[in-house]
Amino acid sequence: MSKLRISILFLTSLLVIQTLGCGGASLPRNIKPVQTPGNVAVNSQVTASASYSDQFSGLHFRPSAVVDGIKFESHYPETYWLLPDHLTGFISIDLPRPVSISRINILNTHNDGFNDRGTKDFHVEVVKIDGERKTIWRDAFLKIGELKEKQFGGIEASRVIVYVDSFFINGGGLNEIEVIGNFLDSSSITSTHPKAIAQKEDSFKRPAQQAIGQKWAVVIGISKYKDSRVAGLRYASADARSFYDWLISQQGGGYAPSQIRLLLDSGATAESIKNALFSWLKQALEEDMVTIYFAGHGSPESPDSPNNLFLLPFDTKYNDIASTGFPMWDVETALKRFIKAKKVVVIADACHSGGVGQSFDIARRGDRSVKINPISSGLQNLSKIGDGVAVISASDDKQFSQESQSWGGGHGVFTYFLLKGLNGDADYNRDGQVTMGELIPYLSEQVRRDTRNAQSPTVSGKFDPAMSIGK
Predict the structure, then answer these.
(1) Three-class SS of residue 112?
(2) Which residues are bridge partners to 181 per DSSP?
(3) Which of 130, 259, 240, 247 is nearest to 196 (CA)?
(4) Taking residues 383-390, what's their average pLDDT?
(5) pLDDT for 203-223, tens place per residue?
(6) Please, where are the H alpha helices in 232-380?
(7) Which domains does the chain carry?
(8) pTM of the prediction?
(9) Helices (DSSP H) in 201-269: which residue ranges?
(10) Where is 327: in which H helix or E strand?
């Protein structure tokens, strides 16, 4: 979006606010929500992997806009949802009661006539009443602003999730999602699955997250390196320790300490990391959940080999990243071949500089500026291994992760808000559980806001937004 267009958008928004008075939150009188008959999605609870906030105007294009009943895009960001620049993602509609779905309508955004954002390829999943997830629709918009409709034969579901798989120009987004159908009463459910029967007997409380077995975690934090020529970090190991403390807390993650491998500083050697990922995590079963947290340096091998990506363990050698770093492809191997769990969350704060090691320092001294560290993209690519893998990275490739004493007395900004979110600040529906669908938009907004858009967490993967890291 150009600065000129943003300025026009901002000035128009100010004009609208002036005409509305001090409240400024309600829409102009000529724009009214219209509830399509049988549209059970209106005013449902909605979460998304992320949403776009404009750094110039301060406008935020929230996920709740897709169920507000307003199909007319104007200079009002509350009427449509956008993803951040160049990201795919998802939006999840948690229906207030189980529904028999006969049709779904999806109206693409055109970003208020700027014609620079919109969804291209997408697919739709439902969470059925018995907890099963099923893909029911794959399609592609041919242009921005287009309406797509799909008829169904009465699918019983409690949640609808739309995945943005690709986008036009600057990023994806949607104007409106309509779920046409009928709310079910206990006598209407046709499923004979035990979980569906239990729902009949439970007065249609929203279905709980499926049981996931046991939870396992590997937590790695490295502030000081054996080779003193590798620049240390101030709070990486403290961040990892704080995350570990949350995991074992009964008020937090509720993990058994015996099912967490904590590797800090000198304990986080290349050998110990490989043992944790390749051998120790083999104990996790398919129905279990695995969380992998890393805080430390991540770097390409050299400016001339930017695609050879490494996490840097304690015993990394300054002049030999290639043979002493922990290769990103070994993380991929662990996820593909050794970790059987079908639910995996990778959380990484690894981009603290444009590159680490002798070759990068030589490049800088030679005035060869190093502004991009592709470690974040390498982490995001881990999500392509399969369904159920979620990857959250502290920043994108063109940004460096920030740490300061101002965040909780000494934290990276990413982990500071990660912990605040997990401790309840991201629990938007106040049900006592922070889901990924709640945590991700909270984390994205708070980090961007507190760093004035200097750091933007990224997320990728095909996973259930109802999944929770905690108990």
Answers:
(1) coil
(2) 101
(3) 130
(4) 87
(5) 344 444 444 589 999 999 999
(6) 236-248, 270-278, 321-324, 328-333, 358-365, 375-380
(7) 3-200 (2.60.120.260), 215-460 (3.40.50.1460)
(8) 0.66
(9) 236-248
(10) strand 326-327
